[in-house]
Amino acid sequence: MLTNLYIENIAVIEKTSIDFGKGLNVLTGETGAGKSIIIDSINAVLGSRTSRELIRNGCENAFVSAEFSDPCEPAVKLLEEYGFEPEDGVVILQREFNVSGKGKCRINGRPTTAAALKAIGTYLINIHGQHESYELMSPELHINYIDKLGELSGELEAYREVYKKYRSLRSELDKAKLDEAERERKIDLLSYQVTELENADLYAGEYEELIEQRNMIENKEKIANALNEVREFLNGGEDSDGAIQSLESACSSMSDITDVLTDADGIYQRLQNAAYELEDCYNEVLSMSEAADSEVENIEEIEDRIDLIHRLGRKYGTTIEEMLEFLEKARKELKFLQKYEENREALAENCKKAFDEASSLAEELSKKRRSTAEKFSAEVKKEMAFLDMPNVELVVRQDKCQLNSAGCDDIEILISTNPGEDPKPVAKIASGGELSRMMLAIKNVLADKDDIDTLIFDEVDTGISGSASQKVGLKLKEVSKNRQVLCVTHQAQIAALADEHFKIAKRVIDGKTFTGVTTLDHEGRRDELARIIGGVEITKATLDYAEEMLNQKI
Fold this sequence. Notes:
Strand content: 15-25%
CATH superfamily of the domain at 1-124 and 452-519: P-loop containing nucleotide triphosphate hydrolases
Structural class: alpha/beta
């Protein structure tokens, strides 16, 4: 549930904080007061694309914060996938953006991305506004309503796995369909490439070894001199003792006093260990010297090998690892082409099996959609009849189509709003008000299928009035019994049913516009309802009627 929304420097809102409650939360205000800004701010904090035009004039930054309590299980799971978790049952989404186009996103104070906000926000809030009308007028999206009502996500996911496998095999089969001449050309090319790489006998890490060998040969004298000096420093020369002899002498002297000086034994042990370490170093240096002396100085062979790797790299990959990967793929493709008929037949058989399996799953899905579509039509019609559309006729047209990611169904909702007329596509029939009521009816039918705790209806009363508004309000009230509902409205009949009522108003101070949000008490609600009903002139009769609306029993 959305418990708090804080907005700073968004359009005409300088700063405002709104504490939403359970049930039906209504926002009202005069046209242009800034009601849409509230929705824009919520969209922004839910990860939608923002624009610098949203930032208040004269300001560099804008900020929105939304606090949610007790998020649903799918939201918690997704939060965990992104590395977050609710703190004491609370999730706080925050977004800051500036005029330069840069921004910051946070979840519970930790940095995240706008994509993460959007993904998680999908499970926190469902906004139904003007875009929802576009969804109703987009036939390709109607199938989603049926799948949601029928709770067919599991079946759809199972189908998509098999369909994905079929598409992959189909793609391989299409690539395998070569004519004989092209196949021979590919075999010749691949044979040459495989032979060239196999003859090169490359191995991972070889290039680095060659570079090291070349460096050793080019710097052999420098290396020998340095190693000889180190050996002399450690083991001494004809006229001097080395570090090892000096350290052994120190050990002997310290050993003489270990029985009379308590701390001497510890130092003696450390000196002895250092002597052993130096002897190990000396032996390793000696081995390095012998290896350097025995190194064959065939710089030309090394340079030729490095040059070969460079030449092959221009054709097969920038690193030996990439060249070896290319070789493995080329071997597989060559083997496939050399056994073309046998492999193609096996591939075709596997492709057919996958197609048959996908078709079977799609058919099962289609049957379930058909029975669900009947239930969908009946329930939505019932809801729309309550919303003052008793003569509406609703049909879900379901035609077969080629397999695609959604199955084998072409689904579209058809509607007739007048008796005697055949149902036609929604986009050709429904008015703005009818679309609003249809949207509310569908959402009410699907309400129990969503885990989302907060629904937002942005001006769902568009194009309706009178008893239709009253019934829309009653339906919103009904939905709000099981979840939180936020509604932006111009209708007094809807506003009167609110559990929480917020008034959005703007004022001009020193030539600047400021919009504020006020939580209304009973008297404030009465005055606001009277304003909506009566317009400019508010009479006692209007106030009395507003009071009567507030006191109605539902």
